[in-house]
Amino acid sequence: MAIGAPKIKSIGAAQSPLLGAAMFGPAVLYIVLVIGAPFVLAVFYAFSDARIGSSGLHFVGLENFRSILQSPSFRTALKNSIVFTVCAQAIVVVCSGTLSIALEKPFRGRGLVRFLILLPWVAPVSLGSIGWKWILDSIYSVITWVLVWLHFFKPYNTPMWLGEPHLAMASVILVHCWRLIPFSTVVMLAGRTAIPKEIPEAAAIDGAGFWRTLFQINLPMMLPIINVAVLFGTIFTFTDMTVVYILTAGGPFDSTQTLPSLAFATGIQGSDLAAGAAISLFLVPVLVLIAYLMLRMAHRAEVV
Amino acid sequence: MAKRRGRGISRRDFVKLTTTGAIAAGLGPAMHFGQAPQKTLKILQWSHFVPAFDTWFNGTFTKQWGQKHDTVVTVDNINLVDLNTRAASEVSARKGHDLFMFLSPPAAYEKQTIDMTHVYQEVEKKHGKKIELGHRSTYNPKTRRYFAFSDAYTPDPGNWHKDWWAEAGFPNGPDTYDDLRAGAKKIRDKTGHPCGIGLSQELDSSMAMRALLWSFGGAEQDEQGNVTINSKNTIEALKFMKALYQESETAEVFTWTPPSNNQAMLAGRVSYVANAISVTRQSEREHLPIDSKIMISPALKGPVRRIAAEHVMNCYVIWEFAENKEGAQQFLIDYMDSFHDGFVAGQFYNFPCFPSLVPNLKQEIANDPRATPPDKYKVLGNVLDWATNVGYPGYATAAIDEAFKTWVIPTMFAKVARGDETPENAAKAAEEEYKRIFARWK
Fold it and tell me: Minimal Cα distance from B190: which residue of A?
């Protein structure tokens, strides 16, 4: 009891409403200032005639939404955002799942391989994207140079990685995968190590092979953690504009434009803040759905 | 106590000393012992494509001006593609530089800038009238105020590879768009080298496409500011670009950023680009073997006229929230007195908006010892016969500014060139986009 008494006292202090509010306050303040205020401002702008250079605002109702829905660039950006996210996530899940299997069991140099795989996630996204821009450049691309050297292409008839719409979209998706695979691999590795060793061992004794163990034991048991990786990855991909902006700036002719990059191009570079804000609000329904799914998963995990 | 003294300093003395030191350090910069704080002037402009200009402007002129006016002048140079983003953030924060230089007419920012009529008047008293290009790029006829001050513009000539064009039957380079198409195809077929007219969402492509559009008689708007992009002339220009692209270009032109056509020309890859003299200035500076092969020609002649946009238009604004508005205005007025020094330091990149500032311009550029041959830049002597403003034949309005910055024109040309749209549909789509933008700025 002598040892337990102060423990009970400290729990009581933690339950004090004032202390609780004080500890919770910074988090609330952070969310209000960094997320809440800009979001409210975006909603406010989306229903106004705000321009970068204007000095006053007027309420214009749904005019901005009507205007951007007429824009072909917006329709392309909306479609691209979905294609970009779905394709990137599909590739990321398959690659990171494979890597997590390869990296699970010890082998010589595993530490170094893990370090190298993690590098793209650690490096600033802008730096990585600039590196890729040079790798895929129309004049100085090292990939193109190798392909020409191997006589796959003639010097002036090479693939333009960022110049052909489909190649450009594929390049944007692959660079994004390059960045996200390390994060997803780490999450999946954690999921795999959490599977009790007895279960796959018992399955092996019962005659289950690699694929059966993978699809009927490992993957179902890892599903909650895969969901976490996918949901985080979806948020990172759907809201990212750095890779698109640096690699293609939305080109060629808006064919790789996504909602965030178009919102930036319209609102900041094009001076039309209201239209930019309205475009960015189209991200919200998807993000709300993801947030709901994540909270639901977190709640389930608590119950379990 | 004696023991304490022997240790050098007491705890109380230490606290006193450090507290006094901290207060002095904190207040020090603000205390000038009776002197008025020195004025400051903050300038933001691009990192010039001819670095020698920045050396003169930052290291010589602004320092001399600052000493004369007891002002600390700071110049921040940033990449040209970041100018609009930086301007947006300064306006949103209502804080930033006193003088901000854009490279295209920033009409969308008019309400955030002070009227530059006074600056123009003062400069015109000393140096005579400004050119029409400067007027149309910085004046709003509706509000009757100048939202910017233009000291200089840069011509947008053609740069072509002498040997290849001579072999193709054009020893003096292409003079018309028909020459360009015929010669570029011959060179592409024979040597593989493509033509390098940009079709990307960036400044150089945007200017090149406007030149093509105007030369075929098309335009974004008429003199009264009505949208006119969907016309027969525009469709003809689109058809031409489609043919030129398919016969002589590669998809690299869709990927370009402003320096890309310089790089392609200097790498000996392309036969022709529409660009300022930064291409040849770089080859001279770096003593590249290709330097003597690259020649300069005026804007190409189209079926209707010979015309091109200025390549860049220096447009200085003074923010309405600037801290040193008077200093910024005086700086611009005084800068014009030294314009000729900048013209020489910038290796003729910045052409004057007040012709009397470089009275012997034709003679000066006709004999440049850096160039091979020395009269390489002579063709730019009559640049004002064919250079015009963004928004031609109207003014550079806020709607034109937004259309320019959202790349409507190069996007329209690129879609047709690649065959993703018919010329008719692309012109119609561009018309809808222009009408949408114009409606938002009414």
Answer: A156
- Cβ atoms of B357 and B127 within 8 Å: the answer is yes
Does A257 fall in a domain?
yes
Equal CATH topology for B39-154+312-366 and B158-310+370-440: yes
The topology (CATH level 3) of B158-310+370-440 is D-Maltodextrin-Binding Protein; domain 2 (3.40.190)
DSSP state of A105: S
Residues 131-190 of A with CB under 8 A from B: 137-140, 154-157, 160, 162-165, 168
Q: What is the count of structural domains for chain A? A: 1
Q: How far is CA A229 from CA A90, A114, B317, in A?
A: 11, 18, 48
Residue A176: which CATH number? 1.10.3720.10
Q: Is residue A60 part of a domain?
A: no
- For chain B, what are the domain ranges? 39-154+312-366, 158-310+370-440
How far apart CA B296 and CA B375 sit, in angstroms, is: 10
What CATH number was assigned to the domain covering residues B39-154+312-366? 3.40.190.10
Inter-chain residue contact B255 with A272, CB threshold 8 Å = no
Give the nearest chain B residue to A254 (CA atoms): B411
Run means of pLDDT, 10 residues per run, chain A, 304 residues: 47 69 90 90 92 83 90 91 94 93 87 87 90 92 94 89 93 94 91 86 87 87 86 89 92 91 91 92 88 78 53
Cis before B259 (ω within 30): no
A264-278, B203-217, B324-338: least confidently modelled range: A264-278
* A6 in a structural domain: no
Identify which of B12, B346, B292, B354 has the alpha carbon closest to the alpha carbon of residue B150: B354
H/E segment holding residue A233? helix A219-239
Contacts of A253 in chain B (CB under 8 A): 199, 201, 254, 410-411, 414-415, 418, 420
Arithmetic mean of pLDDT over chain B: 92
Q: Which amino acid is at B256?
A: W
For B339-381, how does the pLDDT look when each residue is reduced to its tens digit (9 = 90+)?
A: 999 999 999 999 999 999 999 999 999 999 999 999 999 999 9
